[in-house]
Amino acid sequence: MNKIIATLIAGLFATAAYAQTTPVQTPAVVKAENEANKDVAKAQQKELKADAKADKKADKAIAKANKAHDEAAAHVDVEKAKANEKVAKADPEDKAKAEAKGDKSVAKAEEKAGKKAVKADAKAIKETVDATADKAIAANKTEGVKAKTAAEVKAAAAKN
Fold first, then answer.
1. What is the C-alpha to C-alpha distance for residues 149 and 23, in angstroms, rounded to an integer?
2. Considering the domain boundaries, does residue 86 fall inside one?
3. What is the pLDDT of residue 24?
4. Mean pLDDT per segment of 10 residues, for the chain of length 160 residues?
5. Is the distance from CB of 128 to CB of 60 less than 8 angstroms?
6. Which of 56, 77, 78, 151 sits at 20 to 30 Å (Cα–Cα) from 38?
7. Long-range contacts of 77-82 (CB under 8 A, 24+ apart)
8. Taking the mean position of all CA atoms in its chain, how far away is CA 130?
9. Is residue 20 part of a domain?
10. What letter does residue 93 receive in the DSSP assignment?
11. Which residue range forms the structural domain that includes residue 123?
12. Does residue 83 contact residue 106 with C-beta atoms inside 8 Å?
């Protein structure tokens, strides 16, 4: 049993020592690795630029949607003010009729505002999804460049 353990331990040390030896790199391999690093750096830089552009696009769409929400709310407030003003100016016997007419115009304005808000939100969501897709495409291109350069380095090493 001791001989088996001693053999296993000796084999372990031998494989560990063998695994630690580094292969000698030829100038062609070094050159290929340097070019690969440059290509990967360029791809990563392009990816970051695409990410920033996509984020800017999504932020712009969200800001536009928020502006549409604010404008719609302001329109509803104006309609409410107009309705209240008409009710205040109306004769006592016509107040109920003026209130009903004012409520109707306010309801119409709220409906229109809700419709605008939904459309603005849908557009913002679409832009955000498009931006996410742009980011994914950029990341995919970077991964492709990494794989291609790794293959080129491997091919350069195989030639020697």
1. 19
2. yes
3. 60
4. 71 63 71 89 92 93 94 92 88 87 92 94 94 93 92 84
5. no
6. 56
7. 78/109, 79/105, 79/106, 79/108, 79/109, 80/106
8. 8
9. no
10. G
11. 26-159
12. yes
pLDDT of residue 23: 59
| Nearest alpha carbon to residue 140 among 14, 43, 24, 30 | 43
Q: Does some domain include residue 154?
A: yes
Q: What is the pLDDT of residue 126?
A: 95
On whether the pTM is more than 0.70, the answer is no
| 131 within domain boundaries | yes
Q: How many distinct structural domains can be found in the chain?
A: 1
Which pLDDT belongs to residue 5?
A: 74
Measured in whole angstroms, how far is the alpha carbon of residue 63 from the centre of its chain?
16
- Cα 49 to Cα 39, 60, 124, 128, 129: the distances in Å are 15, 16, 21, 17, 18
